[in-house]
C-alpha cells in the first residue's frame, strides 16, 4: 500500500516547486548582495545564507505536510486548535509585536522574524474548507450553513487590517471568497453576502475615510496614476521598478548585472525581486516564473475538479487561489497595474514565514493529489476485479 501511495504523488508539482524555490534562492543572492552591504553593513551573502536555511526548514515542513493525511485535519480538535492559535497569534502582536515598515506584523525571536498573518492564510483555508465540507447537506440554509464560519474570517481580517497590513487582509478576504464561491452555495445566498458586505462596509469607509489608510498607503494610490510625477518621493519605488523591468528587454543584462539593485530599488530581494529578474534575465526569466506559478495554480484547480471529497476539493481551490492571488498582487504592484501592497512573490521573494507557509500549503495540495490519484488508479482497479 505504501508503495502504491508513493507512486500516486504528483511529482510534477514537487519538481516545479523545488525549481522555483532554488531559482528564488539564486535571485535572492543576486538582488540582495549590494543591499546587504550598503544598507545594513552585512556580508554580501547574508540574505542568501538565511534564505538557504529557510529553504531547508521549508522542505522538511513540506515533507511532513505531504505525508500527513489531509482528511485528519477536519477533526474538531485540530480545527479548534488552528482557530485558537491563529487568533492568539494575531492578537499577541499588539502586545509583543515588532514594528517594521509602519506595521506591527512580526514577532522578533532572536535574529529571526515571524509573521503570524502568513500562517493565518493557511489556517483560513483549512477552516473554511472543513466547515463548508461538513455543511454540504444544509449549505443553502443562510443562518445555519452560511453565516457562522464568516465570523472567524471577519475577525481575522479586522486584526490584520489594524496592524495595518491591507495587502495580507485583501489576500485572506479573496481566498475566503474563492472557497465560498466553490462551496456549492447557491447564488441567492452569495448575493445576500455581497449586499450585507456593501451595507456594512459603506458606512465604515465614509466615517473613517481619512483614517482608513496611512499617509504612505494613500501615496501609493497616487503613485499608480503617474509615478514619474514625483519620482524622488511618492513614485520612487514604482519608478525604479519600471526602469528595471524596461531595461531587461528579451535577454536581460545578465545574472548579477542589475543596475537598479545598486541602491536605487528599495527591498529588491523581497517585494521587488521580479523587477530584478526582469532586468537581469529579461523575458526568459519572467516567463519561467510566471509559467511555473501558473502551472501550480492550474494544477491545483485540476486536482480540485478531480477530487470527489468536498474537503479535499475546497483545500485545493483555497491553496491554488492563494498562490494565484498573491502572485497577481505582487506582479500588479511592481508593474504599476495596482497600488503597491508589500506582498511577497510566492517561492521567489526573501522571507522565512512566507516560504514556510507556502511549503505547508504545497504539502497539503500534494497530499490531496496523492489521495485523488490513489483512488483513481487502484480503487477503480479493485472495483473492476470484484465486478469481474
Automatic annotation (TrEMBL):
* InterPro entries membership: Cell_cycle_FtsW-rel_CS, FtsW/RodA
Keyword terms, alphabetized: Cell shape, Glycosyltransferase, Membrane, Peptidoglycan synthesis, Transferase, Transmembrane, Transmembrane helix
* Record carries keyword tRNA processing: no
- The EC number(s) given in the record are 2.4.99.28
Q: Which residue spans traverse the membrane?
A: 12-33, 53-71, 78-100, 112-133, 145-162, 168-186, 193-209, 281-302, 314-334, 354-374
Give the main localization category: membrane
Protein known as: Probable peptidoglycan glycosyltransferase FtsW
Amino acid at each position: 500500500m505504501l508503495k502504491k501511495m508513493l507512486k500516486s504523488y504528483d511529482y510534477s508539482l514537487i519538481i516545479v516547486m523545488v525549481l522555483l524555490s532554488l531559482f528564488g534562492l539564486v535571485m535572492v543572492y543576486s538582488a540582495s548582495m549590494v543591499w546587504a552591504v550598503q544598507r545594513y553593513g552585512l556580508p554580501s551573502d547574508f540574505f542568501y545564507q538565511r534564505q538557504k536555511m529557510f529553504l531547508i526548514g521549508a522542505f522538511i515542513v513540506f515533507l511532513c505536510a505531504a505525508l500527513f493525511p489531509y482528511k485528519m485535519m477536519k477533526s474538531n480538535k485540530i480545527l479548534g486548535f488552528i482557530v485558537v492559535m491563529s487568533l492568539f497569534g494575531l492578537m499577541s502582536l499588539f502586545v509583543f509585536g515588532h514594528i517594521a515598515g509602519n506595521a506591527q506584523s512580526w514577532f522578533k525571536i532572536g535574529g529571526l522574524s515571524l509573521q503570524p498573518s502568513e500562517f493565518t492564510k493557511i489556517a483560513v483555508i483549512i477552516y473554511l474548507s472543513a466547515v463548508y465540507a461538513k455543511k454540504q447537506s444544509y449549505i443553502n440554509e443562510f443562518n445555519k450553513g452560511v453565516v457562522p464560519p464568516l465570523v472567524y474570517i471577519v475577525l481575522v481580517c479586522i486584526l490584520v487590517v489594524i496592524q495595518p497590513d491591507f495587502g495580507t487582509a485583501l489576500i485572506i478576504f479573496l481566498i475566503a471568497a474563492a472557497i465560498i464561491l466553490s462551496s456549492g452555495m447557491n447564488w441567492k445566498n452569495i448575493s445576500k453576502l455581497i449586499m450585507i458586505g456593501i451595507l456594512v462596509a459603506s458606512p465604515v469607509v465614509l466615517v473613517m475615510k481619512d483614517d482608513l489608510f496611512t499617509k504612505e498607503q494613500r501615496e501609493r494610490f497616487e503613485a499608480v496614476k503617474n509615478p514619474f510625477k514625483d519620482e524622488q518621493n511618492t513614485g520612487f519605488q514604482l519608478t525604479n521598478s519600471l526602469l528595471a523591468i524596461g531595461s531587461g528587454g528579451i535577454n536581460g543584462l545578465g545574472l548579477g548585472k542589475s543596475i537598479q539593485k545598486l541602491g536605487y530599488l528599495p527591498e529588491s530581494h523581497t517585494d521587488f525581486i521580479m523587477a530584478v529578474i526582469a532586468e537581469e534575465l529579461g523575458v526568459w526569466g519572467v516567463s519561467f516564473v510566471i509559467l511555473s506559478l501558473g502551472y501550480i495554480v492550474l494544477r491545483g484547480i485540476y486536482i480540485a475538479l478531480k477530487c470527489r471529497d468536498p474537503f479535499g476539493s475546497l483545500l485545493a481551490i483555497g491553496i491554488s487561489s492563494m498562490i494565484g492571488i498573491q502572485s497577481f498582487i505582487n506582479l500588479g504592484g511592481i508593474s504599476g497595474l495596482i497600488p503597491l501592497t508589500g506582498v511577497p512573490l510566492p517561492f521567489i521573494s526573501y522571507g522565512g514565514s512566507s516560504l514556510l507557509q507556502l511549503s505547508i500549503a504545497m504539502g497539503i495540495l500534494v497530499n490531496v493529489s496523492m489521495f485523488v490519484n490513489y483512488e483513481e488508479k487502484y480503487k477503480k482497479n479493485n472495483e473492476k476485479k470484484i465486478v469481474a
